[in-house]
Amino acid sequence: MAVLRNDSAVGFDPLGFAAAHLSPAALAALERLQDALTTRIRPLLTEAWETATMPAAVLDELIPLALMRPQGMDAAEADSSMFAGWRNYVLARTDVSVATVYNAQSGLFRTAVRLGGSPAQAAELDEPIRDFRLRGVFALTEPDHGSDIAGGMATRARRDGGDWIIVGAKRWIGGADTADVIAVFARDEADVVRAFLVPRDAAGVRLTRIEGKASLRPMQNFDIALEGVRVPESARLGRVEGWRDVSRILRAMRSDVAWIATGLQAGALDAAVAYVRERQQFGRPLGGFQLVQEKLARMLANLTSSLGIVTQLSAQQDRDVYADENSALAKLQTALLARETAALAREVLGGNGILLEHAAARFFADAEAVYSYEGTHEINALIVGRALTGSSAFV
Ligand SMILES: Cc1cc2nc3c(=O)[nH]c(=O)nc-3n(C[C@H](O)[C@H](O)[C@H](O)COP(=O)(O)OP(=O)(O)OC[C@H]3O[C@@H](n4cnc5c(N)ncnc54)[C@H](O)[C@@H]3O)c2cc1C
């Protein structure tokens, strides 16, 4: 009897997406990552969740792996959407907070500088960003403007001689406490959206931790007040000259989240399969019951469908084909399936499914944040709906 295996970094992958899309060097880099996650990071996660803190050891373990330029991989392969995707997938398969913290640097911040910075800024800053000598976060959302940030952005930047003065507020900004700079989006006096690299310790920047989260607890999110913050013109990201450029950045970042939603499903399925192989009821392992197997099969089907979507999206982006509706479709569908897959995993663990030690509980709670961040289900649906009908329901 053939038994599916999940003992490599990519977990259950019956249709062989990883083998079809990754080189031996990329697979080796992911195995090194998996080893660090399994042996040194996973043991920290229950306490991290209970105490709502991200242990410094997590990034201390990940940074030396040079995951943005792994050994044996050239720049083109390491920077590809495909490799970035699998990296997020493997991270999220262990823990979504860890994946989100890493992606705040490798996805959100790095993409903002690579696509939003002038060619000189991108060239100068990319290496320090890759090796975390320059840490940054991405600050777009505001207290009063989430889904409607494109039209509603209230943070303002005004010229003052050679400087800019920024006034406003940002909300939900992940990992801001450990950032050197915050990529802040603001409207100028002509209503043009601009972006600035604001030092976290600049006068007028005030961070307040968002308390009481029931999802992604180890990851820290912040309200950021910007009270007349002065930055020089050289801090402005040169290629953000309107919302169209922010969209270009978001379009590239959304695939990262779809991969995280897919990795979450892989982790949830791992947790469910491990449990039902061990747990006995009615004198037999739970895994032998038909109703349990049906749930596992649905979970694997959800995961495999999601892998099909994200690998094809990344392959398309690596051919330089970017479409808002394709990123939106991928995020929408993988997050929807992640919610169902995580709920099924929690369910087959019974009461133990709400205990952190079995991991399914973490994935279940984390699916809620993934469902809403970087474009909610509804907003992504409206982007797809606009492409299908030619009629915009929200702008
Ligand atoms: C854990 C976490 C981390 C985050 N990290 C960052 C970060 O690092 N940087 C950053 O800038 N932002 C970050 N965000 C913010 C995130 O992108 C926003 O939460 C998201 O865009 C949704 O905005 P909102 O929460 O204000 O919801 P709202 O916009 O208030 O939406 C509430 C509900 O109304 C629905 N809705 C809104 N408009 C419509 C409409 N026209 N039609 C139908 N339904 C609609 C939404 O889909 C949603 O269901 C993070 C959020 C979370 C939860």
Describe this structure in words.
The chain is α+β, with helices and mostly antiparallel strands. It has helices at 17-21, 24-41, 45-51, 56-62, 75-78, 81-94, 96-116, 119-130, 149-152, 243-278, 290-318, 324-348, 360-372, 377-389; strands spanning 136-139, 156-160, 163-174, 181-187, 193-199, 205-209, 221-232, 280-281, 284-285. The strands form 3 sheets. A 4-stranded antiparallel beta sheet has the order 2-3-7-6, covered by helices on one side. A 3-stranded mixed beta sheet has the order 1-4-5. A two-stranded antiparallel sheet has the order 8-9. A hairpin with a 2-residue loop joins strand 8 and strand 9 (284-285). Helix 2 (24-41) packs parallel to helix 6, helix 6 (81-94) runs antiparallel to helix 7 and helix 10 packs antiparallel against helix 11 (290-318). It is globular and about 80 Å long. The structure holds flavin-adenine dinucleotide. Flavin-adenine dinucleotide binds at residues 104, 137-141, 146-147, 172-174, 216, 221, 369, 372-376, 378-379, 394.
